[in-house]
Specification:
seven-stranded parallel beta sheet, 43% helix
Length: 229
């Protein structure tokens, strides 16, 4: 049975990703914020561990415990993230730091300790990040500049990791969704055409595709999952 770490499992995308990888036969190790529980039934092939992923020492400790217990980590899906609107006039240092912390540092800290472990594995490994179209299209990022800038760092991180990991079969990929069809997005944009948004299940399918054994030769993958929006 393959092992996958999933961060951000309590979110809308996290829930369907857990369900997808459970069906694919993975053993799932999901991180949750200390004091919180997952708002859905936990599959038999899944365990949860508490970790504040914005705290580097906490991340180091929990990843060390996971790798010690399971040894081989086949994939890591780093889904933790958050969104905040605001153009450059509204975006102060506090908001900028908040977005960098939740969107970039959580991914960086996790990959900082997962990546070296994967380099030592004969089987290599797959790290999957979640990017954002706002980081690629200035017209979309101008009204959420802190969010867009924090997500843009994800692309640079993946490229840097791939430069080192390619010879050891450790790849870092980025899935880029457009607006995700979630209850909170529907509530905040009630007049939008929800049928044009990308479904969380479609994003989970893309991540499963990246991690699939038949695609083990893929390198530096960027998958855009835009739906019709």
């Amino acid at each position: 049975m393959k092992n996958v770490i999933i961060t951000g499992a309590s979110g809308n995308l996290g829930r369907v990703t857990v369900e997808k990888f459970a069906r694919e036969g993975y053993r799932i190790i999901a991180t949750v914020t200390p004091g919180k529980t997952l708002p859905f039934h936990v599959p038999d092939n899944m365990e949860t561990v508490e970790a504040d992923l914005t705290n580097e020492k906490a991340v180091e400790s929990v990843i060390a415990a996971i790798t010690s217990k399971y040894n081989i980590i086949d994939a890591a899906l780093l889904l933790v993230g958050g969104y905040a609107s605001g153009g450059i006039c509204e975006t102060d240092n506090a908001l900028l730091q908040e977005m960098i912390s939740v969107n970039f540092k959580t991914a960086y800290f996790a990959s900082r300790f997962i990546f070296p472990h994967m380099l030592q594995q004969e089987t290599g490994g797959r790290i999957v990040f979640v990017g954002s179209r706002a980081a690629l299209k200035p017209v979309e990022g101008k009204n959420s500049i802190a969010y867009a800038l924090s997500k843009s760092l994800i692309f640079n991180l993946a490229e840097i990791l791939n430069a080192e990991g390619s010879k050891r079969n450790v790849t870092s990929s980025v899935v880029i969704p457009s607006t995700i069809d979630t209850p909170i997005n529907r509530q905040s944009m009630p007049d939008a055409d929800f049928n044009r948004w990308v479904k969380p299940e479609e994003i989970a399918d893309a991540m499963a595709l990246i991690c699939a054994e038949e695609n083990k030769s893929w390198r530096g993958t960027v998958l855009k999952v835009y739906g019709q929006g």
